Amino acid sequence: MDSKTVPFLLVTANVGSIFEDPEQMLKIWTNEFLVTVSRLDPKFIALHCQEVGGKNYEKSMKHVEDFINLLTSNNELRLFSKSRIFLDEDYSSAENFTALGNLYFIHESIKDVLIWDFKDMKFVPVQGKEVHSGNIETVVTKEKAKFPQDFFPECKWSRKGFMRTRWSLQGTVFDMVNIHLFHDASNFVAMEEYPSVYCKNRRRALEHTLQRFHNDSYGRAPYFLFGDFNFRTDTDGVIKKLTEGLTTTRIQNNKNGDFTKLQYTDEESQLILTIGKKEFKHSDHQSIFLQNTDTWLKRFDKEVEAFENYVTEFDVTFPPSYPFEENVSEGANYMLTRCPSWCDRVLLSLSARQLVNEKGFIEYGIIGRNTCMGDHKPVYLRIDLKGNAGGKFKGFCKYIRRKLRSVSSAIDK
User: How far apart are the C-alpha atoms of 133 and 156, rounded to whole Å?
Assistant: First the structure.
C-alpha cells in the first residue's frame, strides 16, 4: 500500500428483500460481499444499507443481529480492528425511522482515524468496535434525518431520508452519506412525461439534502454520497425506443373503464412489450436489458445530470442494479416488473473527487452479478484515497470551536 493513499471500498446495498428469506439469503449475500472484499483488498470499508430489517420490519428486524454477526465474525474482516456500525431499527418511532444502516470497518494498519462528534463539534479517536442499534437518535457520531412530510404528500409517512458520518483518515477529512430516495409506484405514471412526478420528488429531496450540506453548520467537507437513489431511466423515452413501428393495444378494465395494460405487437401480431402498473415485460427481456445496456439504455439514465454542479460519478459500465429476481435460482435475471435502472449509485462531491488518486486503482461495479442478492445488486466503488488532504477543514474546525467557546463564555458572564 502506498503510504500516501488508503485503499477505499464504498458499497451501497438495499438489503430489504434478503430479510424475506433470511435462512438462505443472509449467508448468500454475506459470502458474495466478503468475496469482493477479499478480491479488492481495501483498508477502509464503508457499507451503506437501506431497508435494514426488510419491508416487513416488524417481523424480520430480529434477523438484523444475525446479519451483522455473519459480517463481523468472518476471516475476511479479522484484520479490521476498528469498526463503527449505526443501525436505525426503531420502527415504533415513525417520525424518525429511516431503516438505514451505516457500517464502517477500518484495517489495523490504519493508525490515524477520527470520527466527528456532531454535538461537541469535534473529532474523536476511533478505537475498538462499536455497534449502535435500535433507537440511535442520541448517538452523537452520526447525523440522521428524514425528508420533510411535504416531500411525499401521497404517503402517510416514509422511511426515506439520509444518515451521514464525518471522518478524518490519515489527515484527510470527508463525509459519508447514506441516502434513500423515493421509488416509482406506477409504470403508467412514470411514462407520462420526463421528468416524471416521481423523478421530480427525488430531485426535490436530493436538492434539499445537498443544499443542507452546502450551507453546513458543521463546516463543509468533501462528501461521498452513496445509497439507493431510486434513479430510473426516462421511462417514456425507453418505451418509445422499444416500440418503434409497433402497434399499441389498451386492455380495458371492465369495472371502471380504465386500462390495466398496454400491449405492443409487431406486424405479425407477435407480442413484444407489455406494460402494467407493476409490469414491464419484453419478449426478449433478459438479453435486451443485460447486454450492451451501457450503449443504448444508459442514454436514458438522466436523473443524475440535474446535479452535475454538485456531484460527479465514475463511468458506469455495469448493468442496471434493479430489479433482479428475488428467487435464489434466478438471481441473474431481471424481474418483469419495472424497466431495469441504475437505482444504486456511488456519487462524489466535486471536492471529494479531488481526494481520489485517479492514477491509482479504480473499479466501479456490482456485486453478485450471477448470484441472488435480492432485488437490488449491491454497487461498489474501489478507489485509492489521498492522505493529508484535510488541512482547510481542520482550520475551519478550530475556528468553530473558538466561536463556541466565546459564545459559552458570554453566556457564563
Answer: 25
- What lies within 8 Å, CB to CB, of 61 at 6+ separation is 52, 53, 54, 89, 91
**Which of 367, 391, 375, 374 is closest to 35 using CA atoms?**
367
Question: Do 86 and 129 contact (CB within 8 A), yes or no?
Answer: no
CA angle 375, 381, 384 (to 5 degrees): 165
Question: How far is 281 from 314, CA to CA, in rounded Å?
Answer: 30
- From first to last of the 413 residues of the chain, give the pLDDT tens digit: 445 899 999 999 999 999 999 999 999 999 999 999 999 999 999 999 999 999 888 888 999 999 999 999 999 999 999 999 999 999 988 889 999 999 999 999 999 999 999 999 999 999 999 999 999 999 999 999 998 877 766 655 578 999 999 999 999 999 999 999 999 999 999 999 999 999 999 999 999 999 999 999 899 999 999 999 999 999 999 999 999 999 999 987 766 556 689 999 999 999 999 999 999 999 999 999 988 777 899 999 999 999 999 999 999 999 999 999 999 999 999 999 999 999 999 999 999 999 999 999 999 999 999 999 999 999 999 999 999 886 555 555 554 555 545 544 544 44
Residue 351 identity (one-letter amino acid): S
Cα–Cα distance for residue pair 273/242, rounded to 1 Å:
8
Q: At 44, give phi and psi (nearest 5°).
A: -135, 125
Alpha-carbon gap, residue 175 to 115, rounded angstroms: 10
143: phi then psi, degrees, rounded to nearest 5? -120, 135
Name the CATH superfamily housing domain 5-232+284-412: Endonuclease/exonuclease/phosphatase (3.60.10.10)
The strand pair at 172-180 and 223-228 is best described as parallel
Q: Residue 354 in contact with residue 345, Cβ under 8 Å? A: no
Model confidence, pTM? 0.92
Report helix angle 22-40 to 64-72, nearest 10: 30
Sequence ranges of the domains in the chain: 5-232+284-412
